[in-house]
Amino acid sequence: MTALLRPALTLFITLSLITGLAYPLAMTGIAKLVFPDQAAGSLIQKEGKSVGSRLIGQAFGAPRYFWGRPSATSPMSNNASASSGSNQGPLNPVLADAVKNRIEALRAADPGNNATVPADLVYSSASGLDPHISVAAAVYQMGRVARARNLPVERVRLLINEYSEGPLLGFLGEPRVNVLALNLALDATR
């Protein structure tokens, strides 16, 4: 029995040290050297404090801010430790009610806006943590944000254009806007 157990235990300990300790430490070290910002969580700093990550959406509810995609995470919105979608299909009445309530909230926040509400403002992403909205979703909210901040609409439009990101690698996906970065730029606007 010892003849079988000793090599198995030795192999288990050796592989545990390699795959559980050496490899993760090596990959973390390489990542910190090659991609220091991403390895640190793509954190956004403001006045020396981390205010969020470029990769995780945050909930904004005040009219003076652009609102991101709804989050399906629980027990709170944009909970990074509970990343998931709602898994509600298009015929699910719970989803239909949630979308209806989100549209009503957007209309109530900006009663004069009769434009079609962009889908990404009423449907959550697969992860529930998407930090981006479409350019159309930003433009939809532009008037409300400009009025709440007492800014010219054109100034807000310029910020949307400045913080718009093109498709990944020039062809993957759609142009988008990082909501946190845009809202921080608005806060810095005088």
Keywords:
mainly alpha; elongated; single chain; 9% strand; two-stranded antiparallel sheet; 190 residues; 2 domains; 5 strands
State the gist of this model.
The protein is mainly alpha-helical.
Question: What's the topology here?
Answer:
Blueprint: H1 2-34, H2 36-39, E1 43-46, E2 49-53, H3 93-109, E3 132-134, H4 135-149, H5 153-162, E4 164-165, E5 176-178, H6 179-188
Antiparallel strand pairs: 1-2, 3-5, 4-5
Helix pairs in contact: 4-5
**What's the total count of β strands?**
5
Whole-number total of structural domains:
2
Rg over alpha carbons = 22 Å
Succession of helices and strands: HHEEHEHHEEH
Quick one: overall form? Answer: elongated
Helix content: 40-55%
Mean pLDDT: 90
Specify the number of helices: 6
Structural class: mainly alpha
How would you write the strand order of the largest sheet?
A: 3-5-4
Largest sheet: number of strands, sense, barrel closure: 3 strands, antiparallel
Low-confidence stretches: none
Structure, explained:
With 190 residues, the protein is mainly alpha-helical. Helix content is 47%, strand content 9%. It has six helices and five strands; from the N terminus they run H-H-E-E-H-E-H-H-E-E-H. The strands form two sheets. A three-stranded antiparallel beta sheet has the order 3-5-4. It has a two-stranded antiparallel sheet with strand order 1-2. Helix 4 (135-149) runs antiparallel to helix 5. The longest helix is centred in the first third of the chain and has 33 residues, at 2-34. It is elongated, with a radius of gyration of 22 Å. The termini are far apart. The relative contact order is 0.13. The model has no long low-confidence stretch (mean pLDDT 90).
